[in-house]
Design goal:
The protein has 2 helices and 3 strands; from the N terminus they run H-E-E-E-H. The chain is α+β, with helices and mostly antiparallel strands and 99 residues long. It has a 3-stranded antiparallel beta sheet, with helices on one face. The longest helix is centred in the C-terminal third of the chain and has 28 residues.
Length: 99
């Protein structure tokens, strides 16, 4: 059981670290832009690193008012951050149980 929990925590930190510190545009999101005085919303893939301030230049964000994940983006982030580590931990738990 301890190895399964350790595998979950390690894989969560590893996957979370990669997704939060590298600009991988994988998650469905919306960008609110105001370049002409009129706000318009654009659908675009967004990286989790943008929320921490990594992976973009300040010049690129000049006319951007806001950006956020959609429901699909949140679901995919949940699957990557919790689902995959859970499956890895579950596999190790059952492997240890068979011994």
């Amino acid at each position: 059981m301890n190895r399964a929990i350790l595998a979950f925590v390690v894989s969560f930190l590893l996957i979370g670290g990669v997704l939060c510190f590298f600009p991988i545009n994988l998650f469905s999101g919306k960008i609110v832009e105001n370049s002409t005085g009129i706000s318009k919303t654009i659908s675009a893939p967004i990286s989790l690193s943008y929320f921490l301030g990594f992976g973009y230049e300040e010049e690129d964000m000049e006319y951007i008012q806001d950006f956020y994940l959609t429901k699909e983006g949140y679901a995919l982030a949940f699957c990557f951050l919790f689902g995959i580590p859970f499956l890895i931990g579950l596999r190790i738990y059952y492997k240890d149980k068979l011994r």
